[in-house]
Amino acid sequence: MGEVQPFIESFRGGFSGILRWPQLDELWAKLREDTGKAWYIYAVGEPPPQQRSSAEQLDRFIREIDKLLREEHAEEYCGIVYVDDREDPGFIKIYDPHNLGVVCGFSDNPPLPGWVLSLEKPVDLQTALPPPGNRRRWWQKLVGLGH
Questions:
Q1: Fewer C-beta neighbours within 10 Å, C or N terminus of the chain?
Q2: What is the pLDDT of residues 94-135, one digit of tens each?
Q3: Could you tell me the residue range of the domain that residue 104 belongs to?
Q4: Is residue 1 part of a domain?
């Protein structure tokens, strides 16, 4: 098997959930304050970005994603944003409120996040982490490709 790419290694690393909306506010403030970091903003399912975002692009993304999460995840808790290090973030997974699957708790095949903020250059997650074989077999059988 080939070398694991730094982005995938970071993606598979340990994460803490942002459980409360004030914690999310703190995370956004930390990202805005730390102007020494340039982030990749990756919408999973789209081609991975080739360039880091500007401070203005990051600020706009934060405003828009925060609005989307609060409107579409109408809960008293957040629980759909995960960060590798709350004090010194380098990788953030943001799950789409309409595609949660088993985000909380344990799953061998959790859904991919909707968006990723990363200091590592992203790779296509859908290619790098394909669905499990049983899903491919199911799909092939469904569309008449399998036996």
A1: N
A2: 998 876 554 444 445 568 899 999 999 999 998 887 665 555
A3: 6-142
A4: no
